[in-house]
Design brief:
FAD/NAD(P)-binding domain, 8-stranded mixed sheet, 6-stranded mixed sheet, 12 helices, oxidoreductase activity, flavoprotein, Tricarballylate dehydrogenase
Length: about 500
Amino acid sequence: METTVPNHPTTAEHPAVDVLVIGGGNAALCAALMAHEAGASVLLLESAPRAWRGGNSAHTRNLRCMHDAPQDVLVDTYPEEEFWQDLLKVTGGLTNEHLARLVIRESATCRPWMRRHGVHFQPALAGTLHVARTNAFFMGGGKALVNAYYRSAERLGVQIRYESPVERIEIEQGRFVAAHCNGQRITAKACVLAAGGFESNREWLREAWGQNERGEWPSDNFLIRGTAYNKGVLLKHLLDDHGADRIGDPTQAHMVAIDARAPLFDGGICTRIDCVSLGVVVNREAERFYDEGEDFWPKRYAIWGRLVAQQPGQIGYSIIDSKAIGRFMPPVFPGVKADSLPELAQKLGLPVDTFMRTLNAYNAACRMGTFNHTALDNCHTEGVTPAKTHWARPIDTGPFYGYALKPGVTFTYLGLHTDDTAAVRFNNVPSRNLFVAGEMMAGNVLGKGYTAGVGMSIGTAFGRIAGTQAALASKQPQDFAKQSPLAFEKEATTPGVQNANA
């Protein structure tokens, strides 16, 4: 076990609180609210300015939810086993089933608690109806969700500090002692780490991805879909300086093919290109490289960032024709438009001869059945590699459209190994008062791949667990691990906030 880090000079000492929460997104806010409901005094440190608070959660839209019957905004059913099989498929088995099922079951019961803290839900909108059964959409999106949580936290008396990045923490024998932030040493009886991954740390991304066989540094061409404040400072500090148990591959991430014209940071969901399954995708050499119709888009959209990252120059091009218009959520920027395919290739800067050879081969290979973009239909290709297994229709009806794609990183999967108490582990021994939630532990459930809304499911479940456990640890540090993760929710005294188990 590590010993206390050397005592660096600080300018002030902050009076101890029961629970310190480091982070300002969904998981951190869930932890802060749950800790308060369990009777703890809470201080939350958000590294971003107030205007940029909420981390990547501000860019989200929905929460993947298990349900055994229709529920308000959710139609039909989405039982535990189907949710688990969806997760198992996208992760390729790189997931902890016990923790994954914990998240799945918690997703079935968390929404009443969310509503009591001001979150509102709405039915799926046009263009997202394919997830009306599996995902509950936030009214106003993720920004409205985090604003609701912040209002609730402020009303309840949770202390909140913005522009407060934590540089390091003190740990003694696996036990949290203090955090150092803006020249101040902040002590607490327990701590929750929910400060995000390292996706906005360009140097760490370069180190993780290295150089490819073409001599390129792929990560130099990555765009960051979310916050510029997730530098992974605490994650690296815990792993390198304190020897916390790690989980996950540093190159694995929620990585989406997004519009190449998106900004470096904070482009969010509106830069996603959702028409991939309705056409073909080619690289800068005008060649196809993967099955665009492999599965439903919400289950497969997050593989395309990594696929594009493996192409020359880390760029791809989504090509559709007029038959696809109106069948996908339009991105913020219009596509490049042309009246013919050769003209489209020229406008995109692609080799025209190769482009036409690729498109002609694909068109000739299409075997039309009954097209249905809401089902795994029987429209497929024959005699072309890669095959397109569903939704294969000839691209032959002008005008034609092309979207340049780059890898867009949402969040990284390298994180801290934990268990169903959300405790940080050192040499496989759980800490008595240091917990983790959100992106910093998502790799326990997501070894690779992604399915829409599951990041919010993980953050909500483990944020609630971590906050409850931290509050308990601040009162009964020797006994907390014996309790069930959500056993200590209590009825809040503030009007309008009720027992989450009610």
